[in-house]
Write a structure and sequence with these properties.
The protein has 135 residues and is an all-alpha fold. The protein has a single domain, classed as Four Helix Bundle (Hemerythrin (Met), subunit A) (Up-down Bundle), CATH 1.20.120. The chain contains 4 helices and no strands. Helix 1 runs antiparallel to helix 4 and helix 3 runs antiparallel to helix 4. The termini are far apart.
């Protein structure tokens, strides 16, 4: 009888753990989609020479960067990709740095530098996606 109770308890614990990981992964996916929309807003602002639109995109992007720092990707990545969590955190910090610099460039009325910062943001995103999604 004890074995049945212990087995049942372990099964419940495992299933609740898997459900929590699925929820975290779903939230990460949702936040990533919102970051994509923010990056598209920055691009659109640059394309149409609308600095305020670019700043709004930066604001939205930075609001979602914390998910990369708080999410534990090692919970759902394959064993050979577990270290990519640290890589994602570093990319998030770099994105934030370039986003801050983009705003400084806009404030200095230097759209060329702002667009270069945008390019660097895209490089950080792409670098992380290539490394993590290659599994």
């Amino acid at each position: 009888m004890k074995k049945i109770i212990i087995t049942t308890a372990m099964a419940l614990l495992l299933s609740s753990s898997l459900l929590a990981n699925a929820k975290e992964k779903a939230q990460l996916s949702s936040d990533m989609r919102e970051m994509l929309l923010a990056v598209e807003l920055i691009q659109k602002g640059g394309f149409y020479s609308k600095p305020q639109m670019m700043k709004e995109g930066v604001k939205k992007l930075k609001a979602k960067l914390t998910i990369l720092e708080s999410a534990d990707a090692s919970k759902y990545l394959p064993d050979d990709k577990k270290e990519a969590d640290k890589f994602a955190n570093k990319r998030a910090k770099m994105i934030e740095m370039y986003a801050d610099d983009l705003v400084v460039s806009i404030d200095a009325n230097n759209l060329d530098d702002a667009l270069e910062d945008y390019t660097q943001i895209i490089r950080q995103c792409t670098s992380c996606h290539i490394r993590i999604r290659s599994y």
